[in-house]
Design goal:
The protein is built from 1 helix and no strands. The protein is an all-alpha fold. The N and C termini lie far apart (about 35 Å).
Length: about 35
Amino acid sequence: MQGNPWGISENKEPVSSFAKIMEEELAKQLHLEE
């Protein structure tokens, strides 16, 4: 594991898609707080 929070290979599409969605949600929350 090289700093991968999922504990699995990074080339798995479902995980990549999920990570992108979470990043977008976090970005929205940050903008709303500002």
